[in-house]
Amino acid sequence: MKFEKLVGERFKERPSDCVIDSHALMIRGGYMKYVGNGIYSSLLPLKRITRKIEQIIREEMDGIDGQEVQFPVVMPASLWQESGRYESIGSELVRFNDRNKNPLVLGMTHEEAAVQLVRDYAQSYSKYPFMVYQIQTKFRDEARPRGGLIRVREFTMKDAYSFHTSQSDLGDYYDRCHHAYERIFTRVGIPEVISVASDSGMMGGNISHEFMLMTSIGEDSIVICRGCGYKANMEAADSVIYNERDTVSNKITLVHTPNIHTIEEVCGFFNITKEKSCKAVAYQRNSDDSYIVVLIRGDLDVNETKLTNHLGFDIHAATIVDECELAAGYIGPYLLNNNYSVLYDKSLENTNNLVCGGNVIEYHYTGLDIQRDIGNVMYHDFVKIQDGGICPCCGKESISISRGIEVGNIFQLGTKYTKSMNMTYIDKEGTIQYPIMGCYGIGIGRLAASVCEVHHDDFGPIWPMAIAPWQVHICAVRSDDNAVKECANNLYEELLSSGIEVIYDDRAVSAGVMFSDADLLGVPLRIIVSPRNLKESCCEIVSRDKTILIKVALDLTNEKILELV
Amino acid sequence: MKFEKLVGERFKERPSDCVIDSHALMIRGGYMKYVGNGIYSSLLPLKRITRKIEQIIREEMDGIDGQEVQFPVVMPASLWQESGRYESIGSELVRFNDRNKNPLVLGMTHEEAAVQLVRDYAQSYSKYPFMVYQIQTKFRDEARPRGGLIRVREFTMKDAYSFHTSQSDLGDYYDRCHHAYERIFTRVGIPEVISVASDSGMMGGNISHEFMLMTSIGEDSIVICRGCGYKANMEAADSVIYNERDTVSNKITLVHTPNIHTIEEVCGFFNITKEKSCKAVAYQRNSDDSYIVVLIRGDLDVNETKLTNHLGFDIHAATIVDECELAAGYIGPYLLNNNYSVLYDKSLENTNNLVCGGNVIEYHYTGLDIQRDIGNVMYHDFVKIQDGGICPCCGKESISISRGIEVGNIFQLGTKYTKSMNMTYIDKEGTIQYPIMGCYGIGIGRLAASVCEVHHDDFGPIWPMAIAPWQVHICAVRSDDNAVKECANNLYEELLSSGIEVIYDDRAVSAGVMFSDADLLGVPLRIIVSPRNLKESCCEIVSRDKTILIKVALDLTNEKILELV
């Protein structure tokens, strides 16, 4: 391919709307173009990269007995009504009507389609286990697309669905898929990806893992234990909190606390530590604005994902209006109007002598003993785990929090979809059973962007050979020089016929322009043909990552390149 | 791949809702599954076929300097508002709003996206010509999906867009693409595809061709001249009609014609030929139900596609209600209430002494002379060309009409999109110009189904080697026989390591079941390992199309297969 024919703009200035490097470089390098909020077109270099990533994934999926299929992008709503997700998923699921007013949805995940595809086929235990996967466009109406290809609304994804007759068979397959994922991330050039325990969210099921590329620009928070190596998404990590009750529970007493608002002020006023306070955080349900009050120990914060998963519906921070009778800033559990859903975090278990809001403006209670004053309540885990917290695995105070990009995920779904969609099989004993499912996703574009995040410098991406848009970039510096032109042409033809993927720049531009464009394209090996080199009958081979910089005799160049590729 | 692991149902009965063979066989053979009206999932055999077709197309598009890109499935409505098609296209374009009430569309074609992708890049003549293409899912809300993959709502398409600085450059590229298409159809196994002149419809532009597979189940009507070889879609073929005026124009006279309804009855009553009658056909505009009256010679019919293209909006056959003052069955051009749009077909040019409706129930006029009685009117071509009609190319009465499936199309678009979307470049003289576009489409699924239509028998598809889901199908008949099992296993491993794509059936089923399943899978070469064959230390190689049926010594099988593949 001639560089001058490559469609796409390349430019030097970092676009002002690009926060992360991969986004900026992929816009600057003519890899992709903005079409609308969270929607991009891909140009040839990115298309070549993603096709190579897709092929690696395909090989690994075939290697674990996957069968490539294709589900529809547009599906009848009835399929999602069967599983119950038509109602339970929020506005990220696009719903619309066709010309005959039949409701349709845009696929954002395909558990329903997978069950529909195989439920007539797999009615006997002898058909199991099996896995089907596809590589396909999806649309998820994200509230806040960002980071270029890291979080978009339209994206290409490999999604796989496995079906099993026992939990142990699913467990075995889940492990095989985990290994296949490790191979995929290694092959595309980011072996540093780690897997962490994750929350299953809207997918249902219980055991799940996310594959995380640890980077400061990641949008997920990962809990890692410096002691035992425990790793989990913050949303999925159980908090461990120890309390000790005072020997005597004081009487509960309403105290006037004028101008005392924050937890710090409350603790200062009463001369107590935050651990001895009970904080109330108010939310509202998105659908009807009803109030939910979460009570938690004063030194801790609520992890809203944990809370949402517990509730099973979407919420937002409460706006406290006069009519609602909540005393903003002074909410507490004692004598709280029972019009509200009240939830207790497990950090309040085994406590007494707490200070809490008095449910009257400028009043607090002291001496709260939940067990005595409220009665038996259920405690749940809503705590946002903090750096230095206690590891739920080894029990030591060795938790650190880092940020990561989720580049893949695997879920054990159980029978959530097979039961709701009535997919059954007859087991060996002739009994009707529900198959057990697993599902396994990788976002192709996000993976490409993640590789770019890890492998780039200020001048452009440094693509690993396995997914590079081309393998070799020939720069004919001073192509107006006939000897240069001829030599570069010959090299180009020779490499092509050796099966090498070559991009060839013979434009009449300065070496500076040529090299900065080549840097943006990030091809791993560069051959420089120039009048100076030709005087020595050689050319330069330079690797994009600068680890290779050699002069090679012209007649040995092809051979050397084959060796390096 | 082991046959027993292949996900998908295979069965003998032709599904009652399948009208055409390819549809029936691809459902019966576990290639695809119905999900909703005009929406299917593909299973592994079809996915393998379409991936091979896509690769052939990709090679041919790369061969004519195409650059693979990817446009979004979901696009902002604003892009389609720029071109004007957001308003002009009917309900086949899916429109919906996102969570923030921004209007979006589902891509059914990507001229707008192509212009948006390249218009910032291609601002100088030196960037031209270039072509970008994609292979991607599209959704078109067809009113009547039918024929399995022949007409669906969701489909995968290769669509290409080329940009040029002169009509002659577009013409040259158009020809190159025409040749590439011929190579594609030949490579996938249907070299009999012909190209015919076509109508550009909603695409705009002027010159266009459709690639047609001639078959009785086709939904397009193709005009072919038995004399000069002229070929065109019926919608695009100009009609040629000769009239001769009588020397004397009689006076126009209203005549009572009780119980005279049809053209035949009218001609019988007045003792004239149909050529001497003027028929009125009434339509209504879809958007507002306003009436359009088309006048045409009594022996001819209206081609509604020609009419729609002339009007630029969608219509349906009129329902004549009392309030509209049209005299159903007696409509004529003379003294017709001028509330209606009236159009004259060119078959009425140079006529007189016509009989036409009297615009009063049970009355007709005789002696109509349009020029004298109506005045100067514009004549347009709305005629449905008939078998035996006059060829617009050679002028002989040698038109025949055949049916075909459109498997591809190419259009010269002119500046329709570049002008409306303000894409410009500076030419050599420094003048601002609009580039000229071409576009080129092939439906992947329809092409697969078309190959199946041509290549099948009662028992299943007969896939050409180039696109077959596998190259070789091993049938181990009586796999409970250890010798059979071992021999078949060895052959399987040997062929796999020779790089052959093998599907291997070692199920404990009868030879009948095994062979009928193999027929449905349509793999070109079959190896039969059976106890009987093993007695002679050989196996049978049978081709699916029955042209090959040989016994081969076991140790030569691998070699023979490599030769045949």
Quick tags:
homodimer, alpha+beta, YbaK protein, Rossmann fold, 3 domains, nine-stranded mixed beta sheet, five-stranded mixed beta sheet, 31 strands, 28% strand
Helix content of chain A: 25-40%
> Which CATH class of the largest domain in chain A applies here?
Alpha Beta
Strand fraction of chain A: 25-35%
The CA-CA distance between the termini of chain A, in Å, is 18 Å
Helical element count of chain A? Answer: 15
Unreliably modeled segments of chain A: none
Number of domains of chain A: 3
What would the CATH topology of the largest domain in chain A be?
A: BirA Bifunctional Protein, domain 2
Global outline of chain A: globular
Major sheet description of chain A? 9 strands, mixed
CATH superfamily of the largest domain in chain A: Bira Bifunctional Protein, Domain 2
**Radius of gyration of chain A, CA atoms, in whole angstroms:** 29 Å
Question: Which pair of protein chains has the largest interface, and what are the residue counts?
Answer: A-B, 59 and 59 residues
GO biological process, one term (chains A, B): prolyl-tRNA aminoacylation
Protein name (chains A, B): Proline--tRNA ligase
GO cellular component, one term (chains A, B): cytosol
Subcellular location (chains A, B): Cytoplasm
